[in-house]
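Running co-folding for EPU.
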Amino acid sequence: MTNAANTPGADETALATSAADDAVDAAAAALAQGLKDDAKHAGARVGLTSDEIIIHGGRPLTGRIEVRGAKNLATKAMVAALLGKTPSVLRNVPNISDVRVVAGLLALHGVLITRGTDDEWRLDPSNVEVAHKADIDAHAGSSRIPILFCGPLLHRLGEAFIPDLGGCRIGDRPIDFHLDALRQFGAVIEKLPSGISLTAPNGLRGAAIELPYPSVGATEQVLLTAVLAEGETELRNAAIEPEIVDLICILQKMGAIISMEPNRVIFIEGVKELRGYDHRAIFDRNEAASWAAAALATKGDIYVGGAEQEEMMTFLNVFRKVGGDFDVREDGIRFWHPGGTLKPVTIETDVHPGFMTDWQQPLVVALTQAQGTSTIHETVYENRFGFTDALVQMGADIVVHPSGLADENRRVKRREFEQAAVITGPSSLHGADVEVPDLRGGFSHLIAALTAEGTSRVSNIGIISRGYENFIEKLRLLGADFIYES
Ligand code: EPU
């Protein structure tokens, strides 16, 4: 039986529905504005003056470009410099916005940064000091790297304040593994409205830590904390991405004792002090894979200087299966579309040595040109197909399954929140006005606009500058037809 007094009438229901719709619209508008602001700030850090590019598509990209150090190593290597008693030198540093964010945070903490040649940075941590919370706060929301300052700052200063984190909106991106590990080392953590505050009243001691998932960031957190912690640390279920191995090489150069064992186990023996390092950052395999995907989608031919085979093996296999060709040379890899029909593939993204989640977004554009149905199971992040809306707007046939899809032949264990995208091609893409939603998705938008017939306006391109160095100049070098008003 219904209680008439408690049952909303038709007018009330309509009002409630419209209020809910208004709230959804307001949230969407706030999100769009937030992205625009992020894009503007990110672009400004590397000198981008306009936040949109107009692309006339349909022309193959051909020529040679260079990739430099990996965003996902260089930014962490810069944080590692905090641990040394003497200055560090990092070479092959890319001119990207995320590097600028980390440089800003380091400078706030008293690290003196000087640049030698264009891509060589000297980081002097002799005068590390506590930064003002308000200044750190100004960096809130700009990147995920600040979380990695915890261990080094606790070692150097006995306290740390970490602002709310930014980074791409591709899922919840919690930091529970980081905080649990830090607590195991002895950190005391207080959550504040604007971030987290940490102290280590009894110092930091080695610990036995098992990650629930081989998280890249949490593995780095443990490494950067364990090297100067008292005693031994055993890390189980660690991430073993090439960028992590490169970080371990850096820490070893600094005087750390770290051994990598089979089955994702890493042992670290804490030492009393570390010195600075001199290191050339590993190349950016995500950028290399993105340009390779651009060559395939636009029927082009791109020589990616600086790319190396070993770190890209899994990508290269898929690139070949789709119908692309490549040639590994002394100083780079040439990627091209050899003509003929591209073939569909089924991919499950995974931690290394699996197919990286960062590679799927650019590759999806090439798969819209393949003959048949491809499926991508995204098992790392719970929301990494948002970028496909724009591709559909451009004429692609992509259906996203938010709760994933069953597949009997899969190799990667199904994760609770995974998604799948089914791409059926080939589709003739046409130009459209699109807004970049995240870093890799944004690069996919560029590739789609370059592949499409007609004109596209791609806005929020500052977000792309977070991880792609000089991408406008590189498009020019590859013969793209576009207007960018600086
Ligand atoms: N996770 C948790 N709790 C944590 C940490 C991670 O649940 O405390 C989950 C994440 O939500 C995600 C999974 O673990 O589902 C993997 O996340 P991971 O920690 O490995 O990612 P990350 O360290 O935040 C880095 C790269 C990403 C790259 C991933 C995977 C940096 C700055 N970012 O992120 O790069 O996709 O590893 O390789 O190194 C990019 O470059 O565009 C990018 C997003």
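Result summary
The mean pLDDT is 92.
The radius of gyration is 23 Å.
Job closed.
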